[in-house]
Amino acid sequence: MFIDSHAHLTSPNNELSQRESLLQELERAVLAKVQAIINIATDETSLTQGLVLEKQVSAPKIHTVAATTPHDVAKDGAHFFPIVEKAALEKKLVAIGETGLDYYYEHAPRAIQQEYLRKYLQLAKRAKLPVVIHCRDAFHDFYSIVDEEMGQEISGVLHCFTGTKKEALEGIQRGFYVSFSGIITFSKSSALQEVVRALPLEKMLIETDSPYLAPLPYRGKKNEPSYVVETAKMLAQLKNVSLDEVALQTSQNTKKLFNFI
Are 158 and 177 in contact (CB under 8 A)? Predict the structure, then answer.
């Protein structure tokens, strides 16, 4: 059994207005032995719809996470933060995220990204929840802020990791898990594949980041949770272990991080 540790089921590209299509995706996920999906909400609409979906769908089990992405903090951070705060303190979420820093696209000024990263880390501490992190070309600043805000209280995951071995190990040393997406199946991802080989399976999660980043052989198509199996297959190949071992260990890791059975 597999767990998709990061999917955007209720994103604008996958809304409940397309309910029949979404339910078909979830049926395919069950057939692919996906037992649970961590649904990432990034605005008020996707959070509201995600909480509805969580109650309405029994299989696969859906768990909700929410925060403003670093891309959107300038335009939506002030509006969405108190909504996430309320949901977190009411124990409707299993984590805070995806929050973090993105200096590659830099859709929001760095200072505002850093401000909201601190706010969300502080909320995670208050709510006693793990964090789901988006970090690209910003690990030096990210780790500095994490060290200041969280100290030894870190519980979280570096989602859709595309950084270096050194950056991954720095995260693991601080208590983070590292999550890999379908990117590791791409032919031009040899450097990232070497990172996978170097890290312990006990600190890995797998994800789709659907509806984005479909793995081979589905690249170019809309991604969906059932495709997480393709990422698991590549991870098993790179680690030279069985697919069953990858399924078992990454599922155990995900359950431990997000504190569900």
Answer: yes
pLDDT tens column, 194-203: 999 999 999 9
d(CA 34, CA 177): 20
pTM: 0.96
What's the pLDDT tens digit per position in 57-105?
Answer: 999 999 999 999 999 999 999 999 999 999 999 999 999 999 999 999 9
DSSP assignment of 120-183: HHHHHHHHT--EEEEEES-HHHHHHHHHHHHTT---EEETT--S-HHHHHHHHHHTEEEEE-GG
Cα–Cα distance between 111 and 103 in angstroms, integer?
11
Sheet with 34-41, strands from edge to edge, namely 2-7, 34-41, 61-66, 95-102, 131-136, 156-158, 176-180, 204-206
The span from the CA of 207 to the CA of 253, in Å, is 12
The CATH H-level superfamily of 2-258 is Metal-dependent hydrolases (3.20.20.140)
Candidates 179, 202, 248; CA nearest to 1 is 248
Enter the DSSP assignment of 99: E
